[in-house]
Amino acid sequence: MNDGATEKKLSDPSRAARHTDTASDKATAAFVRRILCSHDVLLGNGEKGLNTPRPIEDVLPPLTSSNEIDLQLYAIIAVIIKEFVQTWYSKITPDHVFVNEVIQIIAHCTRGLEQRLRKVDLEALLLDEIPELVETHLSTFRLAKQQASYQHSLVSDPRVVYHTLHPHPALSPLPTETMPSSSVEQRENESAWRQLLVQGVLVVLLPTEDLQNACLRSLVSEIFAELILGNGISGKACEGTTLWEGITRIAEVLQTDQGKEKDAPSDDLNEERPLNRLQRYGLLASAAEQQSGDERSQPPVVDDRRNTNAPMTITTLFWMAIQYVFLAGTAMRAVMVAVATSSSLPPRSATCSGGQSPIEGGYQSQLLQTGSPEMRRPSDSRRPIVSMRLWSCASEFVELGARMPWLSGVISMLRWGALLGPGRVGNTDGVLDRFLSHTTQTRVLNPAFLPIVLRTLRATLFPNNALAPPRQPPSEEEAKHIKLRCAATLLGLLPARVAAVFFASASHGEQLRQVGESLDCLDDAYLNKHLIFAIVELIVLRLVPELGERGVQELMEDRLG
Predict the structure, then answer these.
(1) Is the pLDDT confidence value at 45 over 50?
(2) Percentage of residues in the chain with pLDDT exceeding 90?
(3) What is the pLDDT of residue 152?
(4) CB within 8 A of 504, min separation 6: which ones?
(5) 355: pLDDT strictly greater than 70
(6) How far is 453 from 459, CA to CA, in rounded Å?
(7) Could you tell me the pLDDT band of residue 259, with boundaries at 50, 70 and 90?
(8) What parts of the sequence cross the membrane (predicted)?
(9) How far is CA 378 from the centre of its chain?
(10) Is the dihedral of CA 99, 102, 106, 108 positive or negative?
């Protein structure tokens, strides 16, 4: 028994080392060469007889304009080819031409998508259009939940109300337990929607000779429709626990960055340290223990106004004033740096609202906040970042209008002043607009981050370059723990005093409960599909706008005559 335990302990580090090595660039290149370049002839180029193998970019067709991105994409393609093509194709023939043709088709599609991606306004897509869909999901979910909770309501299922207000053809009819056939019909409609979406993209991107090859087209569409859209997006990405875990990881990254930046001034108030530790490590206990522990650790919160003597109150006010002065100085310094550097930043657009005056342009930008994404995209201008829907989406998520309507009004006045006030610093190509655009381009849309994201995605979906074992659905208690951890991580982004004022409670357990209620909008996987499918359709329409004008069958007839 001891020997077996010792061997197991010794094997775990080696297994971790192998897992780390598979994600390195050297191991990734060797894996891609072993799967996709295993034969002597590939695309007409021979490698036999060479002592040193040629680089992968010299053997395989380029996928994008970056070799680092191509390496990660080819690693994902190699896993798919190994698991879903070679398992049955190698039993038929050892020929490698079919796999080469599949790679050529994928390479042609990725190059076409890259060219189209350069023409897409990514700032508007990430900061305006996708947040608008999320905001619609939040408002519709809360309205459906409120409508179903009425005692005299004829409909008691929030799914029925939500699907009625926000229908989607792939999610119809609504699956119910009383009608088992509805679940089967809904899955068939969802599968048909995936196939139609992928077929439409292939019809536009593929050359005519590849489009005429029905076998290759069917295989590629099956890989993308069922493996990526079906198992990945429609299956895993729509689960509430998966979304909560993703939000937790993003919040942990932001929390780590804030911790690095605030290490020096973190000792201004010694009172905040215990509360921050409770927020960070409070998940070791249950929610009830956290709430009771917080109430025991903070008993004088309610009676503090009566029983606290004058010197203690003066000391508290003194340190609070010092903290506010420090925060005001930091904000003033950030504003001065932004004003000083924004003049040297490149403009976001050459013209302002298609040659209109700045007042008309700013007024039009406010009018464009309503309507569909297609209506809100002027062809010759860009909306100011201040007026994009990211801010209203964040306000809807935290319910700022209900919790602090005065703060929501102040923010609206500040936004109006930035757009139409003196200097119009928030209008397109203004001082604030250039600064926000530069920050978005360097912090979010930086192409250097894409290989890291692809490497992390591959290591998560395909550990050790193989299909991960099917994940067991989390139990009810595990789902509650994942949700509680997500709520605690989000709450950790706020300072203790700000959280106490915003949630109108100094109890950490009460704050966690309120954040958890905001996360309820991602609890139902069926409702999440409405949001995820809408985002996928929006991205496809931005990349392939032809699908929004003509049908797949009509495009196919035009291509094939």
Answers:
(1) no
(2) 32
(3) 72
(4) 403
(5) no
(6) 10
(7) low
(8) none
(9) 25
(10) positive
CA distance 52 to 176: 61
Q: Residue 495: which region, alpha, beta or left (left: phi > 0; alpha: psi -120 to 50)?
A: beta
C-alpha dist (Å) from residue 337 to 334, 423, 431, 435, 463 = 5, 17, 11, 10, 44
Q: With 90 as the cut, is the pLDDT of residue 52 above it? A: no
* DSSP of 298-327: -THHHHHHHH--HHHHHHHHHHHHHHHHHH
The single residue listed with the structure tokens 């250039």 is: 434
pLDDT reading at 326 higher than 70: yes
- Write the DSSP symbol of residue 424: G
Write the pLDDT tens digit of every residue in 536-546: 999 999 999 99
Note the pLDDT of residue 278.
36
Q: Do residues 533 and 170 touch, judged by C-beta distance below 8 A?
A: yes
Residue type, 301: V
pLDDT score, position 506: 85
Tokens describing residue 282: 């409070």
Q: Please report where in the chains the tokens 């937790």 appear, as a residue.
A: 248
Over residues 361-369, the mean pLDDT reads 37
The span from the first CA to the last CA of the chain, in angstroms, equals 72
Helices (H), 421-467: 431-443, 449-461
What is d(CA 274, CA 360) in angstroms, rounded to the nearest whole number? 52
List of residues 6+ apart from 432 with CB closer than 8 A: 338, 342, 386, 418, 425, 426
- Secondary structure of 502-543 as H, E, C letters: HCCCCCHHHHHHHHHHHHHHHCCHHHHHHHHHHHHHHHHHHH
CA distances from 214 to 208, 211, 219, 222, 285 (A): 11, 7, 9, 12, 58
Residues 6+ apart with CB under 8 A from 123: 348, 382, 385, 437, 440, 441, 445
Element holding 76 (H helix, E strand): helix 67-84
Decide if 349 contacts 428 (C-beta within 8 A).
Answer: yes
Phi, psi of 41 (to 5 degrees): -120, 125
- Rounded CA gap, 382 and 542, in Å? 15
As a whole number of angstroms, the distance between CA 471 and CA 485 comes to: 19
DSSP 63: S
| Both tokens assigned to 281 | 């490590």
How many helices, marked H, and strands, marked E, lie in the chain? Answer: 28, 2
Pairing of strands 45-46, 41-42: antiparallel
* Nearest alpha-carbon partner for 390 in 58, 192, 207, 126: 126
Structure tokens at 541: 């329409």
* Location of structure tokens 């550097």: 341
Whole-number Å distance between alpha carbons of 459 and 27: 13
Spatial contact of 148 and 155, defined as CB atoms under 8 Å apart: yes
* 28-42, 284-298, 316-330, 528-542 — most confident range: 528-542
Q: How far is it, in rounded angstroms, from Cα 294 to Cα 301?
A: 11
